[in-house]
Amino acid sequence: MNAMASKGIKRAVPTPESWPVMSVPYLLRLDELNVQYVGSYPAGEYWLSKNLRAIHGTTVRSGGSTASAYVNKNPHISTIFGHAHRQEMQYKTVHDQDGPIRSVSASPGCLCRVDGAVPSYGSGLNEQGRPVKHWEDWQQGIMLAWIREDGHFILQPIHILDGWTVHEGKEFTAN
């Protein structure tokens, strides 16, 4: 927003598919890391299968489950969402004339700091302009999606606690 004049600037002799210099994919070198970037925040979405999508999201329920809001709004679509920074999972089963429609809405949590350093509704700065310690109702985590060729899937949340987690019996610690 503050540098709109730089929007779209590319390197000399750019390739048609190259990212603008002042873009997230270019600055983070996502192509070199083989990361598929999905932009268009907040409307961007990526379909992992016919009935499973990943979105950033725009909904947050501070006093309740954001996952239940998504699953109740679209009970025929499963959604992995961010935005809430909490680790949540809510399942729902409805049916039509062909039988059950099973869906899930889930948030993996976040990979950011949860101690007030990341600006939020509840964060603040002290007189020196430094973040005040304030523990958010956020959880750090990631999520694995196991998807079969027929579109069926299983979501597996992995909780991270103070830089430590366990997956399949193996411990992982942040440096």
List keywords for this structure.
175 residues, mainly beta, five-stranded mixed sheet, two-stranded antiparallel sheet, 7% helix
3D structure, described in words:
The strands form three sheets. Strands 1-2-3-5-4 form a five-stranded mixed beta sheet, covered by helices on one side. A two-stranded antiparallel sheet has the order 6-7. The chain is mainly beta. The protein has a domain at 18-138. Helices cover 7% and strands 33% of the residues. Strand 1 and strand 2 form a beta hairpin. The longest helix is centred in the middle third of the chain and has 8 residues, at 66-73. The chain has helices at residues 24-27, 66-73, and strands at 45-49, 52-55, 78-81, 87-96, 99-108, 140-147, 153-160, 164-167, 170-173. The chain contains two helices and nine strands.
